[in-house]
Specification:
The protein contains five helices and six strands; from the N terminus they run αβααββββαβα. With 124 residues, the chain is α+β, with helices and mostly antiparallel strands.
Length: 124
């Protein structure tokens, strides 16, 4: 017979899997957008559960948070990012910095770079 702890763990695992699957599908989203995506797919998950799960996944490095003016966007870890602080556009860019880090005699545990600025459209 399952204990209450194993039921809770199974439910959290389901929430983790659902949030990660939704992020894989939409690539990047706010918590509200993730919530709407999950609900429209028929998942009965609550908004507070999506917030908790996303923030837990950020804390353990499985989800990346990009803070934009007025909101945060979440995506799966991957390439480096250029973020336009004016319009919120996010572009994934593989910068391949590892050799520079090694040349500086620095040993990184994680490698992700987010460059903030303005995109070409906003500079015009």
């Amino acid at each position: 017979m399952a204990t209450d702890g194993s039921v809770v763990h199974r439910e959290q695992r389901r929430h983790t899997d659902c949030v990660l699957a939704a992020l894989r599908e939409v690539r990047r989203a706010t918590v509200q957008e993730l919530y709407r995506s999950l609900r429209s797919a028929g998942d009965p998950i609550s908004l507070s559960t999506v917030y908790r799960e996303v923030h837990r996944l950020v804390a353990v490095g499985r989800v990346r948070e990009v803070v934009l003016p007025g909101e945060a966007v979440y995506l799966l870890p991957g390439d480096d990012l250029f973020v336009c602080d004016k319009c919120g556009r996010i572009e994934e860019v593989p910068l391949r910095r590892l050799s520079v880090i090694q040349d500086a005699d620095f040993f990184a545990q994680a490698e992700a770079l987010t460059v903030h600025g303005r995109c070409a459209d906003c500079e015009r």
